[in-house]
Amino acid sequence: MHLQGAELNPLIARCSVMSPYYVPLLRAARDDVLTVLHPIRGARLNPRKLRRMREPMILLLDDCEPRSTGPNGWIGIRHARDWAHYLWIHPSGADDAHAAGAVEIAAEWRRLLLIRTTDEHLPAWARWFGREAGPIEEWHIPHALAARETLQ
Questions:
Q1: Under DSSP, is residue 127 helix (H, G, I), strand (E, B) or coil?
Q2: Tens of pLDDT along 9-42?
Q3: 3-state secondary structure of 151
Q4: Which whole-number Å values give the CA distances from 62 to 69, 114, 124, 146, in the listed order?
């Protein structure tokens, strides 16, 4: 489903009641500040299409639902990692202030891989990216540092 502009208003209204976390992301997409791609688990991510999408962009992997799998449940995770300039992994208990922060990060870094997961799977995600898990994980992806220098 591809929604933009005012088409996002009904979804924003629904999320404000059911899932307030998404509201800042959806408002930024509605206001044409950034693009949000929210693939379903099992979706294949085409690296060429990812590179051609309008930036700034947030690629949101939602691994916090009852069927949370950690990184092994996401077919396109390698493509997502290679595409991203910034990685942010946090447990599902995060609030809409975290989402507002994600909008700011995406504006600065252009390509944000935002992973929401359960407390149980946070260590697995951190290990997959070669890190130690803490309460909220936020990293600059090493290859992104060179990419960011070329943007400036």
A1: helix
A2: 888 899 888 888 889 999 999 999 999 998 888 8
A3: helix
A4: 10, 8, 15, 28
Between CA 56 and CA 132, with CA 97 as vertex, the angle to 5 degrees is 80
**DSSP assignment of 28-75:** HHHTTS-EEE-PPTTPPP-HHHHHHS-SSEEEEEEE-STT---GGG-T
State both tokens at 95: 């609030």
Our count of domains for the chain comes to: 1
This prediction's pTM: 0.82
Q: Measure CA 95 to chain center.
A: 14
Q: Give the dihedral sign, CA 108/110/111/113.
A: positive
Tell me the two tokens of residue 98: 């975290």
